[in-house]
Amino acid sequence: MEFQQLLERIVQDGVTHAKWLNTLSFMENAGARKISKCEHPVSVTLIQLKHAAEEHRHAYYLKKQIGKIDPELCKTYKADELLAPIATRQYLHSLDVKACRYLQTAFDLNKEELKFAAYLFVTYAIEVRADELYPVYQDILTKESSRIMVKSIILEEEGHLEEMINQLNEFSPDWNKHAENILTIEKELHDEWINAIAEEVTQLDYA
């Protein structure tokens, strides 16, 4: 199932749409926590603090949007309040683990350096993905005249991507070559995640 077609199907059903928003909120929150975990104990940068704060805010914003469907839905991140909960929880974690493995081999880094490199490359991959995902979602919301909007997130994610590229330029002159490998890893994990969601949504259609 095409991603756009999947989202069109998701927004048609209130409970499924609420779970989708909650799933995105979970991902943004997990991303924010991973950014914070990668912080150096004393040399944390202003931009890293900004990213963590903004990803946390996105998680909060998406969670609040659920109230426009039904304030009683998806109050936690429990499995039954997420779409494809196992794949959702594994996606970012697996990307982090596989990216660290790749970066350690490519750059021969110590523990703190590896944490920072993982922050740069994993966040870059996620921002590239967000730049694809949120505009498609917003177009569908607009077409459906939905009260839910993600335009503010789109603007901030575009800014994040630019900031990540600037930081990667400082990190390594040939960062692009390595980023392509991380993007390949991310695409495989993203496809698994979307396929798991599509499978669940298809089963709901037949329920």
From TrEMBL:
InterPro entries: Ferritin-like_SF (IPR009078)
Name the record gives this protein: Uncharacterized protein
Species this protein is from: Chryseobacterium antibioticum
Lineage, top ranks: Bacteria, Pseudomonadati, Bacteroidota, Flavobacteriia, Flavobacteriales
